[in-house]
Amino acid sequence: MKTLLIASSLLLAGSLSLATFNSAQAKAPAAAPIVPVVGSFAVDAGHSSVLFKIKHKNTAYSYGRFNEISGTVDFNEADPAKSSVTVKIPTGSVDTNSKKRDEHLLGPDFLDAKQFPELKFTSTEVSKLGDTWRAKGSLDFHGTRKSITIDFEKTGESEGRGGSKVLGFHSQFTIDRTDWGITYGPGALGNDIDVTVSLEVAGQ
User: What is the CATH classification number for the domain harbouring 193?
Assistant: First the structure.
């Protein structure tokens, strides 16, 4: 008899626990639906970076950056094909932490900043596969326009001042400088330039 009473008590306790759990589940608020981001955004130069590296004498990498950047992103998470990207970089903003080297880079052997004051990427097609976005377009660099394809990722989103949407994007890609007519220093410098672009853009 005592055993029967204990078993009944355990069964009742289990039923009450299950009822409490089911009640809590029923009261839990439903997760908010994920709303795709759609809008026009401007590059925030103060929170964006353009870095590059090139190998010196096939030994160590030399690093540099461009200190100025502007551009626009029309981003459509619901329909990626309606997205577009335009990025502009003044060549005169190059910075390798060496005044002498920067002066050489700005001259006719390399960037020729007086004649070609701007680098510009303009997308012609944007697509998405999984978490990877892909922008096909043209890169105007050193007086030459060539087609390139850049893969990038959306790294986050938040709310900016005034409630505007803020987005982050990141990309790493490689170009061959000789494709754009920069051939100075064969053997002393590698041809591949590895580029890293991190963009923070704010809703307009």
Answer: 2.40.128.110
**In angstroms, rounded to a whole number, what is the distance separating the alpha carbons of residues 175 and 112?**
18
What pLDDT does residue 6 have? 43
Phi-psi region of 2 (alpha: psi -120 to 50; beta: other; left: phi over 0): alpha
* Mean pLDDT in residue range 106-117: 98
Which residues neighbour 79 within 8 Å (Cβ) at sequence distance 6 or greater? none
Does one domain contain both 17 and 95?
A: no
Q: Whole-angstrom Cα distance, residue 103 to residue 113?
A: 10
Q: Quote the pLDDT of residue 7.
A: 40
Residues 194 and 103 in one domain: yes
List the structure tokens of 53: 């590296």
Output the pLDDT for position 174: 98
User: Global pTM?
Assistant: 0.82
* Domain span including residue 23: 1-30
**What percent of the chain has pLDDT above 90?**
78
Q: Tokens for 108, please give them.
A: 């006719």
Extended strands (E) in the chain:
38-43, 49-56, 60-66, 70-76, 84-90, 94-95, 118-129, 132-141, 144-159, 165-176, 192-203
The total of other beta-carbon atoms located within 10 Å of residue 45's CB is: 16
Same-domain pairing of 120 and 168: yes
